[in-house]
Amino acid sequence: MRDLSLRIKAMKILWRSSPAALLWITRHFGYLECLVDAKKYDHATNPKRLAGARFDIKPMVINFFKFSKTSRFAVFGAGKHTKWLETITAADIPVNVVAVLDDVPDMNILFWKKHAILASSFDPSTCDAIIISSDCRQEAMKKRCVELYGDKIPLIDLYEGLPPGPYQKS
Asked: pTM of the predicted model, to two decimals?
């Protein structure tokens, strides 16, 4: 019962939070949830072994989209990770992806019923934030986004604060 009442109080606080606070809470709550799951499997009893722990990334990513106040996303990267994002959001989370961006887009693949477009031809004013769609090449992708669009558009790294990936995606 105590756990349920704490969750209800947390949800009330979340609904009143600013987008920046909500993003921080979502990221760090998901991280803590991953740590708890990792400890259940006895992989993270030693902090030095944390990088080898099994993290269930899917709930953290779903929570990000469920509680995000951002309405229009662009996704940078048109590969397997983006296909995975599309799969987990398609079932029960309405996500408004305005564009999927890539430096070498494959026109044969659709993401959210859209073809990927050349990243250099994208107008960043059409979205509220860009999601970096990778669990292991985030820094290089962030750098490329800053080269293309400057620092005026927020970049969202879904794995910020977690040990380096790749992660198992269930």
From this structure: 0.68
Q: Give the number of residues written for the chain.
A: 170
166 secondary structure, DSSP code: -
Q: What is the mean pLDDT of each run of 10 residues along the chain (170 residues)?
A: 54 57 58 45 43 63 79 92 88 84 93 94 94 91 95 87 72
**Which of the 8 DSSP states describes residue 122?**
-
DSSP 112-139: TTEE-EEGGG--GGG-SEEEE--SS-HH
Q: How many helices (H) and strands (E) does the chain have?
A: 5, 7
Pairing of strands 114-115, 110-111: antiparallel
**Per-residue confidence (pLDDT) for residue 105, from 0 to 100:** 93
Are 78 and 141 part of one and the same domain? Answer: yes
Give the Cα separation of 102 and 136 in Å (integer). 16
- Structural domain range at position 106: 70-160
Which tokens belong to 139? 């820094």
Taking the C-alpha atoms of residue 61 and residue 38, their distance in angstroms, rounded to an integer, is 17
Number of domains in the chain: 2
Phi (first) and psi of residue 135, to 5 degrees: -115, 10
Question: Minimal CA–CA distance to 36: which of 61, 54, 13?
Answer: 54
Question: Does 165 map to a domain?
Answer: no
Q: Cα(first)–Cα(last) distance of the chain, in Å?
A: 29
